[in-house]
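Problem 12. The chain below contains 129 residues. Write out its predicted structure in token notation.
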Amino acid sequence: MIGVWRIGKRFSFDASHRLSGLPEGHKCGRLHGYTYTVEVVLEGDSLAGPGFVTDFGDLAPFSHYLRDHLDHRHLNDVLVDVEPTSERLACHLAQWFKEHLAESLGGRLAVVRVSETPSSWAEYVLDLT
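Solution.
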């Protein structure tokens, strides 16, 4: 049987944003905020150590990035080149993860999912080919 193992870890932070270019009166055009939930999914073809794709503890730098750079911030000030939608935030976080953390992990990042509410989410799926 050929397959991969997948693991996921959830993080959260609070932040505000405002989206421009929306129709007059659209609620997302006004300043508002969320308790964002971010989920990262890593996968591996094999297991390391005692049987890990990646040790969850090795994801601490990602948690620190969220805390230090996004938590209780205005996302328009953080993502200055793009509108801070959940879709673009997921892409931004995937890029940060790949640039700062991916090389040190056994597993490879497959998906970053960002939820603004319990019933809505956006995800960025990495091309693993």
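Discussion. The longest helix spans residues 86-100. Students who got a different answer should revisit the alignment rule from Section 12.3.
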